[in-house]
Backbone:
């Protein structure tokens, strides 16, 4: 989740793509919000992923965040000001991030420092490999604000760490440290914070040693039938819209903007 923040300077980009030979690094850059994902950032991220997916010269993609943090999730300060139609369009575009990451031919490494919360954790889940600094932290706090998980997490989280752990993270919303995340299988590897960049580069180098075609085909095999994830993505939109239509989500997002704990009245789901 994001913190209250001033507007970005006009023309400033919140998504950067840097090329180093066959390795492309996508960096989220909204440090004032711990790289929370607003509509502009999500649109730019989708555009970058689509462009790199079609670039045969790019063989490995790294997704990271600048200023010492990965991504604090959906920007609820912005989401709380949206109409129902705007919020649905926002979530539909957010789901496209997972579709892009899941379907692109190149392996994608999430290089995670600091926060990976909510939508940030969901985006990391859609990557193929996750390398985390040992001081990184992970959480699914959506229910705390009256909302639900999206971005394929209803399928990918369970596949990654099992149903019991998934229920623990989603229902309790507890913050998990990197060591625990590695034990759960949520991250591929936890490394000392000072070694995160080097470990990410080393992982990319190992991927470059393999056949790009074989990596692409193996990625598809591991992912399983695309329609299963697609069904989860579609279902999540309907569920999160049901949450958005109720008083709890409105109170949660209002409380988030006001930097207080929400007060939820009893409500039938």
Residues:
């Amino acid at each position: 989740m994001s913190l209250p923040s001033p507007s970005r300077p006009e023309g400033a980009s919140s998504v950067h793509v840097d090329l180093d030979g066959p390795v492309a690094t996508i960096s989220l850059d909204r440090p004032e919000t711990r790289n929370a994902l607003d509509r502009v950032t999500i649109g730019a991220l989708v555009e970058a992923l689509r462009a790199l997916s079609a670039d045969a010269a790019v063989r490995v993609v790294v997704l990271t965040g600048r200023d010492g943090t990965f991504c604090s999730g959906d920007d609820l300060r912005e989401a709380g000001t949206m109409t129902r139609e705007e919020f649905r369009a926002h979530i539909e575009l957010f789901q496209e991030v997972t579709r892009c990451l899941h379907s692109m031919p190149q392996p994608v490494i999430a290089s995670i420092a600091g926060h990976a919360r909510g939508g940030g954790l969901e985006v990391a889940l859609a990557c193929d490999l996750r390398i985390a600094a040992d001081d990184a932290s992970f959480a699914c706090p959506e229910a705390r604000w009256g909302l639900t998980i999206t971005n394929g997490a209803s399928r990918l989280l369970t596949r990654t760490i099992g149903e019991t752990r998934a229920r623990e993270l989603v229902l309790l919303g507890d913050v998990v440290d990197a060591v625990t995340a590695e034990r759960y299988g949520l991250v591929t590897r936890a490394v000392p914070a000072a070694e995160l960049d080097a470990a990410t580069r080393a992982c990319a180098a190992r991927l470059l040693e393999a056949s790009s075609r074989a990596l692409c085909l193996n990625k598809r095999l591991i992912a399983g039938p695309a329609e299963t994830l697609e069904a989860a993505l579609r279902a999540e939109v309907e569920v999160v819209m049901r949450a958005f239509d109720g008083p709890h989500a409105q109170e949660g997002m209002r409380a988030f903007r006001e930097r207080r704990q929400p007060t939820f009245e009893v409500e039938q789901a």
Observations:
- Residues 15-193+210-257 form a domain with the 2-enoyl-CoA Hydratase; Chain A, domain 1 fold (CATH 3.90.226.10).
- The mean pLDDT is 92.
- The first strand starts at residue 15 and ends at 20.
- DSSP finds eleven helices and nine strands in the chain.
